[in-house]
Amino acid sequence: MSKAVKDLVISGLSKRLEGVNDCVLVDVIGMEANNTCALRKRLRDKNISLTVVKNGLARRATEGTPLAPAFSKWKAVWPCAGVVRTSLI
Questions:
Q1: pLDDT digits over 38-62, tens only?
Q2: How many CA atoms lie within 13 A of 57 on its CB side?
């Protein structure tokens, strides 16, 4: 991925997470494609979106925010209000 594309992804993610103090973080690695599609559908039905990002990009996008410490391990994020960071899988 080129630096220009990375900067666009970081900028977009920063805007999506602007004002978010809490979120649910999960690791979806190892899930079969059918299970991932089913999970995404169930979340969409509840008006929740799943975003998968590279750790480095997430770290850069959340620098200086309350979410920054969470991205040392996790790869997916659901922005939520009033939810404590936890693993669902």
A1: 988 998 898 887 888 888 888 899 8
A2: 22
Q: Tell me how far apart the alpha carbons of residues 9 and 57 are, in angstroms, rounded to a whole number.
A: 8
Q: What is the DSSP letter of 51?
A: E
Residue 6, token pair as written in the block: 């990375």
d(CA 8, CA 23): 22
- φ, ψ of residue 8 to 5 degrees: the values are -65, -45
Q: Is residue 87 part of a domain?
A: no
Tell me how crowded residue 50 is: count the other CB atoms within 10 A of its CB: 15
The CATH number that applies at residue 58 is 3.30.70.1730
In a domain, 25, yes or no: yes
**pLDDT(66) > 80:** yes
Structural domain of residue 75, as residue ranges? 3-80
